[in-house]
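Batch 3, record 17
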Amino acid sequence: MFSFLNPGLLWALPLASAPILLHLLFLRRARRVEFSDLTLLRAAYRRSLPSSRLRQWLLLAARCLIIACLVLAFARPLVQSGGASGGTGREEAVNAVILVDVSYSMGYETGGKSRLDLARAHGLAVLKLLRPLDKVAVGAFSDRLETQGGTLEWAPDLAAAQAALRRAQPGSRPTDFVAALRAGYGLLKTSQARRRLIVLLSDNASHGWRGEVGVRWAESVPDYDPSIQLMTVDWDDRPANAALLSAAVRHAGGGAPELSVRYAVQGPARPNWELSRWQNDRRVDQKLLNLSEREASTALPLRTASGEAVWGRLELRRDALAADDALFYSYRVPSRPKVLIVRGGPRTLDVGRGGYFLKKILLDPRGSLLPYAADVADSVSVKGLRLSDYRAVILLDFRSIPPDLGSQLEPYVRAGGGLWLIAARTDGPEAYRPLSKLLPARVGEAFDLSGASPGVKPDPAAQDDAQAARFSWRDFELQNVSVRRAALLEPAQGARILLRDYAGRPLWVSGRYGEGRVLVWGSSLDFTWTDLAVKPVFAAWLDYGLGLLTAFTDLREWRSFKVGQPIVREWSASEAAPAAVRMRGPDGRTFPLQVVRRRLEYVPQAPGIYLMEGGAAGAEEAFAVNLDRDSGEWDLRPLIPSPFQRLRPDSLTADFLRILYGREARDWVLALLLFLLAAEAWLARPRFSMPVPSGRATRGAAGALAAAALLALVPAAVRAQEGDRFVWTQVKYPGDWDPYPSVYSEVLGFVGTVTSILVVPNRRSISLKDVSLFESPFLVLAGRAAPPNLDDAEIARLRSYLTSGGFLWLEDVSGSRSSPYDRWVRHTMKLIFPDSDLTPLGSEHVIYKTFFLMRSAGGRAIVSGSLEGIDWGGRTVVVYDRNDLMGAWAKDALGHFLLECVPGGEQQRMTARKMTLNIVMYALTGSYKSDAVHQPFLLEKMRLGLTP
Amino acid sequence: MRILDALALAKLNNLRLDLRRHRVDGAFSGRHRSAHFGFSQEFAHHRQYAPGDEIKFLDWKVYARKDRFFVKQFQEDKSLQTYLLVDASGSMGYRGAGPSPKWDYARALAMAMGYLVMRQDDAVGLVTFDSKTRAMLPASRKLTHLELMDKSLVEAKPGGDTDLAAVLRAAAGAISRRALIILISDLLGDSKSILETVQVLRARKNEVFVMQVLDPMERDLSLEGPVRFEGLEEAEPLRCEVELVREAYREEFDKQERMYRGGFHGAAVPYGVFYTDVPWDVMLPGFLSLCSRF
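Prediction for the assembled complex:
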């Protein structure tokens, strides 16, 4: 099921036990701790067993697995896709078929190396991965197998396979994967090995599939077997290629022949790309092309006479694939078929008659507009002409056919001539009787079409005529052709109707007689009959008709062959056939060839011009042999998506092994590793827990999280508050900073007893420069004499402290109206808050109702009627008392009050105690009471009966 | 006295155990409804006035001299019998994060409470116990009795198991009259049966105060690493990683405390928790005010 690419690394697998070993090694000796009672501890231990123990074990397991996964990832496991038996799988024999593409597109060069060179190197690399036990067959292929005998066979050993691979030479044929795959599958079908594969070393261009590829490509390959692995080496370049596709000779306007060259480009546009024409090894023409479109054509003039044999080559500037940049041609410029126009009357071709336009097209002194040469005769002069010189005869506007003309035409048509009767102006139903044997339709009475809708329409059957490929009737507006008068045509058996009028009656009928063809046009060309002659379709109509009669095409004269296709030269009976000829190939070598039964057959293997010497009259005959371009071999775009498993050239070995022996599961192992790492991090996360002073505090997960967040955000505040407990912080300065050393504990005891505030029993004494100043939100500065003046740093710190949330209680314990402390306070506060003054806190201030509802402040000695304070940001940050509130608390060692309160006595002392508590509450709750935000809550609680 | 020094006594002088609302068979509740009507009885001593006392017992002469209110008390008033039940089991000898063992704290509390009660001219008895009653001093109102208690507490050393429930039941048997029972213990053990026993005591018309003495360590379990816990009362140790059980332990501890709080509240028993890191004289006023609220 599993195999490994680096099985040696599996020896490192015991490393996975390292966490266990470390755990055992560093197992700490447990400390002995005495504990009062283990009942709760045991319960907690039992309760935490399932979760924490499991967590520990999971953590250990995760850590072991992490190391195991790391080792596995380096060992690179493979998952067998076949699901076969165990073992590493590499000891079993592999049957491999290596198919090398030797089509000419493999000559594509990148970096000085052709694709075939690279493919050979890839093949050798694959062969290196096979062991002597494995069977391998190497076959070169193009559109057929290029091996000996055209069959694929197992190589006797790997060395022979390597030799066969090295022997593969670039060919000149197109690609056909299906043929090669068929051979490969056929060979592997007979093998019994479990691992069978085909490695296709090709350019993987889509042309190799001949358009058959798709999701169902496998159906096109016989013997397809999905268990056979199909691999190919990928190319990561973007091929670009320009190619000449075809050249055809044709008659340009004016009768001069020209060469129409089709070319194509794939990839980026190439401006000013040279195209040159060579004729008989001499460059005669050159043209700069802008190769931008995928396929385009251009024309090169051919300065040569009709009928002359011309051969040579067309060359496009060389690019990466050079083979298709040359195109060889050999042809004779076709002579124009001659057409005879026999006019029915002396004025038939004059201006104003329909025949005039026929004359203009075929008899223009500057050259015929159509590739036909025409002569004109009348019914008398035609008798002196040899009709066999003409490929077609047009009978124009005959009222009746003389019988001798009929008898002259009959053998001509039977021997292969063409006859076109433009029938009109009949003298009667018997007018064309001499031609009745030839005509495909009986010409009846003329009738007027004026009532009916004008226009003609092509018969659907006539559309697919081979000649019609030059144009389509749909290119013209045939409904605008007006036919007003026509003769009623009755088509004979086997006749084809080419055009009908809009009523559906046949207008133009074609038929055969003997070897020849006959056309009947049911109307005249005169304007009284039809305006066809002045319509654009007239030239096409004429070309179509003449093409049908003469069966003339430009392509007739090609002596052009494809590589692999035999050159055939047959000598007709009129020619003297040689017994043997000599053929000179494109490589310059000459070899003799036998002519058997007036026929020469030779199969060329390379493109080029093949010159045959020793033929008729000693003249050379040239045969152009070209690469097969019909298969689109020039288009090198790779097939996407490829039906093959892909081997990347830079990781060929790994990919090959991965595909052959299974899917590599390293990604999964790495994913598992990541997951385990995450799990480990989660399991090993630190558990935040603060010392919780109150048993009622929630210690759930949410609480722990909130505590963690709090710790992260405001660690100072948390520490300053000692959890949620109130800390009495007193400022220590040189001098008498602590007039009543034990008052704080009295106050704290009172606070703890009367309110639900939790207090820290010990006070914190700090200087203003202490780092923990900002961790102490409640600050007391008491004094009798003036403290030393603050320096700038202390003032800045105090200001910063007060403006960022601190609270300062200034306590003048002197009990006199003007004390040094009082002067110091007013001076210092002016420095700290230059803009704010110490102002008396009126009875409406919230400090009088934060806990107890007070009317006065009280104190040991009433010096001032009220407290004073400094507001900053809507909050009283400094509270200054001059009545010695602290003094009212002071007790001696035996717990008796130390100082007498004047003038109010114990009542005043009680007020002072309450006021102290109010100050503490104010520091802790601010304006909470005056906002009365608690009232609805209390009312609600009372309503629910929760509070007595 | 060795347990309470002069300073502590001075501090205690400012505190008062206010038991007016407690319907005990003693000095305060039975005073007016006793068979011995009026004040023809022999004068015993003065007591500081507390709001609620009958004004007619105010001694105006003393007020004129001292500027403080005192009420006269008479011999015939029944005095409250108070028993201090002090846990002297092994777990009380524990000292974790606090400055002193729980035992020291507990006996200071016991002496303080004893002093406070005795200052009210009520009788105080002392019972120290572990799994059974160790020493018992019957209730007495003599001031010298305080010395005996002090001696007894100093000589006692914590040790042995606790079976609080059994001891309480035994004590309940020994205490004949309705009395005030002040239980000073760490209440560690079978919490359910402890609660039940306290409720039984309450059902027999006794007043019960519960003062739980704990070490901060028992609350926080602020230890690190693998620890082999050895109980002071039981033999079998427990080995565990503190980090793993701390959360669960705190939850268990909270649960127990909630249970005590709820149970004692339901039984109308004042319940105070004293941690040894806070001096007892700081904590005591809060507890006393709690007692007076009940």
